Amino acid sequence: MGVSLIFKIAAVGILVTILSQVLKHSGREEHAFLISLAGLILVLSWIVPYIYDLFTTIQKLFSL
């Protein structure tokens, strides 16, 4: 995992926060929720391969 991934996640978090606040103040809470959900799904899609590698490494370590 590189530092670039952490910066990408931080950038998505900042963007989602700003967009959600703008949408909430304009009275579009539903759209703000969907933006937050999309950000979460995007970040999870980046992190899932690292979690998979972690579990395979643990499985090899304990020879399960």
Features:
89% helix, 2 helices, 0% strand, 64 residues
| Structural class by helix and strand composition | mainly alpha
Number of helices: 2
Number of β-strand runs: 0
Element-by-element helix/strand order: HH
Enumerate the spans where pLDDT stays under 50 for 5 or more consecutive residues: none
Task: Characterize the overall form.
Answer: elongated
The major pleated sheet works out as: none
Name the beta content range.
under 5%
Termini distance?
25 Å
Q: Mind telling me the C-alpha Rg?
A: 16 Å
Précis, in short:
With 64 residues, the protein is mainly α. Helices cover 89% and strands 0% of the residues.
Could you explain how this protein is built, in words?
The chain contains two helices and no strands. The longest helix is centred in the last third of the chain and has 34 residues, at 29-62. With 64 residues, it is mostly helical.
Strand-helix topology:
Layout: H1 3-25, H2 29-62
